[in-house]
């Protein structure tokens, strides 16, 4: 058989498989739609057979759930996504508790797991089940209160550096300036995570503004891995399509190669220093999270076969960055925004902070500031950095409800039958802004609950 004939046969087989799948997919979608245990639950009407409620969700950045739909349909409802497929939204506290405590039943969706895995590898946010528990057990000692307390000096140092940058900008602009707080806070957070996470300087706050190699790779990789497209959704569901290029895939591979190389260097440095100095090493270098993780993983009490592989340890480097980078910077930006709208809260907080006798407060100093603690907690309630998360059932289950749901047929449900493969949206902000929990003013920044010092 000639090479050309073989290519034609392969092409014909590939085209045939594609056509077969094109016929198979609609049948699967129709079966799932009419067999869904969510289809009779209350929920907003679909505005598009192709996109479902997705346009409204996208336009409102999902706030439509708790700003409008929760008032109409309650804390648990169905909504439609692509091809009018039903999904379950819940802010029911009993349901959320059940889902989050049954990680062997409810996993991260494939698109979330695959998107993260392309960038981080088998890190804590990617793995599930027993491997997740295993990694968490190894990593936990690095996040003990005593270890985190040692990072306060870096927090203060970088906060002062950012303060001086803003003060300089304001002075140059005639004491009145418009500052992009989120952009600068993102840079500061990256510097903090680099220093405390793996003793690496990103120089993100550098006045020259020149991002170093790892900084650039992380930025490119993050945007490429989190970019949304229909094709990426298809690739996440159908592994056979992943060999085909997608938007940003070449950039992601290049960025991942850089991150792996630099991460491997950092890992080997940590191992070498630990082996040279012993487990009782007490220098600053040993107090970053990566070194503490390496130390925990090399503990003689852990059998060799139960230790994390170098690949698993290496995957924690980008995981450390993405776990805290966006959430911390956006949470702090929202705090500043909330304070700008409430002068009395801002004044009271300033008075409490000015009573601290040093510009480099310890964790003990910060823990002794009740008004600061109240402002931070109220900001996290009102402006949650992670407003929702998604799960998919990997086996059938019964989901208990705190608030019963009356379906379209008038039947009251105190529990919902969950079928394998069904998707759920867990509404963190839905709980944080629920009037049943926080009162009729739940949608307001509750300054009254922040007691004046």
From TrEMBL:
Subcellular locations according to the entry: Membrane
Pathway(s) the chain acts in: Secondary metabolite biosynthesis; terpenoid biosynthesis
GO CC list: membrane
Bilayer-spanning residue ranges: 6-31
Pfam family, one: p450
Protein keywords: Heme, Iron, Membrane, Metal-binding, Monooxygenase, Oxidoreductase, Transmembrane, Transmembrane helix
Top-rank taxon: Eukaryota
Protein name: Cytochrome p450
Record-linked Gene3D superfamilies: Cytochrome P450
The keyword Chaperone is assigned to this record: no
GO MF, one example: iron ion binding
Cofactors demanded by this protein: heme
Recorded family membership: Belongs to the cytochrome P450 family.
């Amino acid at each position: 058989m000639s090479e050309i004939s073989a290519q034609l046969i392969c092409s014909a087989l590939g085209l045939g498989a594609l056509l077969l799948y094109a016929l198979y997919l609609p049948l699967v979608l129709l079966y799932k739609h009419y067999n869904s245990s969510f289809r009779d639950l209350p929920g907003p009407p679909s505005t598009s057979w192709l996109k479902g409620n997705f346009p409204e969700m996208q336009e409102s950045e999902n706030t439509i759930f708790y700003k409008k739909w929760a008032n109409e349909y309650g804390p648990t409802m169905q909504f439609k996504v692509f091809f009018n497929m039903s999904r379950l939204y819940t802010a029911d506290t009993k349901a959320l508790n059940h889902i989050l405590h049954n990680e062997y039943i409810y996993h991260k969706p494939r698109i979330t797991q695959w998107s993260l895995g392309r960038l981080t590898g088998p890190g804590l946010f990617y793995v599930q089940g027993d491997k997740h528990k295993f990694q968490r057990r190894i990593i936990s000692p690095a996040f003990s209160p005593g270890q985190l307390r040692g990072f306060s000096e870096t927090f203060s140092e970088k906060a002062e550096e950012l303060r001086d940058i803003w003060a300089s900008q304001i002075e140059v602009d005639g004491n009145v300036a418009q500052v992009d707080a989120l952009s600068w806070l993102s840079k500061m957070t990256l510097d903090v995570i680099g220093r405390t996470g793996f003793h690496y300087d990103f120089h993100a706050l550098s006045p020259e503004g020149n991002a170093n190699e790892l900084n650039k790779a992380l930025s490119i990789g993050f945007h490429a891995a989190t970019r949304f497209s229909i094709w990426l959704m298809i690739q996440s569901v159908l592994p056979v399509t992943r060999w085909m290029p997608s938007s940003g895939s070449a950039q992601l591979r290049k960025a991942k190669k850089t991150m792996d190389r630099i991460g491997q260097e950092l890992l080997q440095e940590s191992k070498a220093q630990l082996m040279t100095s012993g487990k009782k090493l007490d220098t600053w270098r040993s107090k970053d999270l990566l070194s503490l993780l390496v130390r925990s993983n090399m503990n003689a009490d852990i059998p060799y076969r139960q230790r994390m592989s170098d690949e698993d340890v290496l995957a924690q480097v980008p995981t450390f960055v993405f776990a805290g980078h966006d959430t911390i910077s956006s949470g702090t930006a929202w705090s500043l925004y909330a304070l700008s709208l409430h002068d009395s809260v801002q004044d009271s907080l300033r008075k409490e902070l000015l009573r601290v006798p040093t510009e480099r407060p310890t964790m003990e100093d910060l823990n002794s500031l009740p008004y600061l603690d109240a402002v931070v907690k109220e900001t996290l309630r009102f402006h949650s950095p992670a407003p929702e998360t998604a799960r998919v059932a990997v086996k059938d289950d019964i989901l208990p409800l705190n608030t019963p749901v009356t379906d379209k047929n008038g039947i009251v449900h105190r529990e919902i039958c969950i079928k394998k493969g069904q998707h759920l949206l867990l509404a963190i902000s839905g709980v944080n802004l629920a009037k049943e929990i926080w009162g009729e003013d739940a949608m307001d920044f509750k300054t009254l609950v922040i007691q004046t010092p």
